[in-house]
Amino acid sequence: MDNILVVTTFHEPGLVSYGQRMLDTFSKQVDKRIKLVCYAEDCNPVNPDPEQIKIVNQKHLDHLLKFKETWKDTPKANGKCPWPERRPRDWHKEFKWDAVRFANKVYAVFDAYYQNKEDLIVWMDADTVCHSPISYEKFESFFKPRTWLSYLGRAHKWPECGFYGIRKSVAGGNEFIAEFKRVYDDADNGIFRMEEWHDSFVFNEVLKGMRHQYPDINDLSGHLVKGEGHPLINTELGAYFDHLKGDRKDQGISKRKDLFKLRDEDYWKDVK
């Protein structure tokens, strides 16, 4: 049964910088039984395979539009730390408090989860390159059947939320998504009661509150990465995918120093 849906989103600058490449490489390399829904923010990507990929105009996401309209003029929701005296080392790192920016991502996940029939909903950042062919069976193997969540953990730090999968049919999946969505929909009693509110921090806070009751989760990388790091390419996922975090987009491939050990796939032979 074809039961996997991958989700991503990007805006116009992202489309030009990395988004179109993601769509093109997904279409070329990923098993056609795995579908992709892309939420396009004020842009018009070329769909390389309408049978596999669905493009959705982000303007159809009413809950996202409501969130952005509600908080668009509120500094704390747009990157301004509300208590810099409490965060003397990092108050200037605006991404940590940019709820409006990261709402695009989480509301895409919420919509895909509730509006589609597939059991396994997989988030994949749009700055991901699908560099080598991957079968349905291999892709599915990254998500253990009796776990409701598979994700890229980092010890002593919030997860790397460029890639994760949630299974509806296992207890914990529906409960997690419901609470994840609630803390955004009711932000005053949700994300704004946390220390930070970028999506990875919020994801981790919700997970911490649920993992005792729903312990069936699969951390793909927590044993590899402690603190800062580039988990995806150092797991088995790196045999098929690259994640162009940050300035890696400029060179079009991750860096040699990101790898804990050199990989032997053809894609990685030219890494510098």
CATH topology: Spore Coat Polysaccharide Biosynthesis Protein SpsA, Chain A
The level of helicity is: 25-40%
Q: Give the SSE order as H and E letters.
A: EHEEHHEEHEEHHEHEH
Ranges where pLDDT stays below 50 over 5 or more residues in a row are none
Strand count, sense and closure of the main sheet? Answer: 7 strands, mixed
Q: What would the principal axes of the Cα set say about the shape?
A: globular
Report the CATH C-level class.
Alpha Beta
Summarize this structure briefly.
With 272 residues, the chain is of the alpha/beta class. It contains eight helices and nine strands. The strands form two sheets. The chain has a seven-stranded mixed β-sheet, sandwiched between helices. Strands 5-9 form a two-stranded antiparallel ribbon.
What would the keywords be for this entry?
272 residues; 7-stranded mixed beta sheet; Spore Coat Polysaccharide Biosynthesis Protein SpsA, Chain A; two-stranded antiparallel ribbon; alpha/beta; single chain
Outline the structure in words:
Helix content is 31%, strand content 19%. It is an alpha/beta fold and 272 residues long. It has one domain (4-270): Spore Coat Polysaccharide Biosynthesis Protein SpsA, Chain A, CATH 3.90.550. The strands form two sheets. A seven-stranded mixed beta sheet has the order 3-2-1-4-7-6-8, sandwiched between helices. The radius of gyration is 18 Å and the shape is globular. The N and C termini lie far apart (40 Å).
